[in-house]
Amino acid sequence: METIDxxxxxxxxxxxxxxxxxxxxxxxxxxxxxxxxxxxxxxxGRKKETxxxxxxFQISFNSSFWELYLNKVFQSLNFKIDYSKETPDxxxxxSSGRIINVEAVTSNNQLSNNKDYYTKKAYQETVNTKxxxxxxxAILKLLGKIKxxxxxxxxxxxxxxPYSKLEHVKNKPFVLAIAPFxxxxxxxxxxxxxxxxxxxxxxxxxxxxxxxxxxKITHIINNNGxxxxxxxxxxxxxxxxxxxxxxxxxxxxxxxSQSKMSNSTxxxxxxxxxxxxxxxANFGVDKLGFREIKLSKTHTVxxxxxxxxxxxxxxxxxxxxxxxxxxxILDGLHIYYNPYAEIPLDDDLxxxxxxxxxxxxxxxxxxxxxxxxxxxxxxxxFTEYEEED
Length: 389
What we know:
This protein has 389 residues and is an alpha+beta fold.
């Protein structure tokens, strides 16, 4: 399949996004360019949209980057993509003949096109102000974007040509693929905020570790003091949406990690679940708890292992040089199924080891996440090419 030329500038220099300018001006990113360019294979089939897409990538970056990443994901899952269907964003054809339509969307920061937003100073300010209000705003942005796409589907306010009326969309699962780019710490959400948006589930605290029931949240208060309902997949209010694909790792860092770019350090966290008896037989009881393991001069792992019932749960937090880091294109992906969907999504369609499957049981009112051992939770990349203050 043909690809498209993403990196020859098509707009004035002052319009170029800071990330895009960094990519085309710093020689060390040459392999990253090749990786991203590879993700674009097939998109030349969007004949009416190609020029618009390239310009949006060069000007806005994040939303187009997410589409490029998804394009590679769907190809890796062996879907055939009908690029002649330009809305919604992806018309996927499974080997079984089943068809799924996917619309891509990102939650963004209003300063994301400002060069100053990408300085070390701006990043540190984000770190210093991380608080409950930031989480609330991130939740509201996720919810707002999902609502916008639902409205596009149903044709709210008499919008012409709603997705639901398109022949290739009728009676087919409609899936939203959403990623947060709303601040420098979006990757730290892992899946805690989207869990609240979709299933009304709060993250567990340490005193809940042996409690199978989760703490619920029904709403949050927006800036105007209005109650905004959460748990939109716990009733039929979003019955038009079959499922949601979500990731906080389908970012610029994914391209860096895939390209094995030199002079970069990667921090990644992976979920671990192992059989208790097998773990003790292999490692011994004294390896439970917290440990620091030095794998090499440039690779340290902080491990946590907590026994519960017949399993050992925990995490591995890796700090290493990019040459020692490995992750697949699918690592870090989640899919959330809507149990109230009018057209459900079959759960074998996105069934890959790296993808976390998330369900909601209507009878018990509990979320059922299925994380395989070594699932990627979060990842952050540090390079020596960050902007100075």
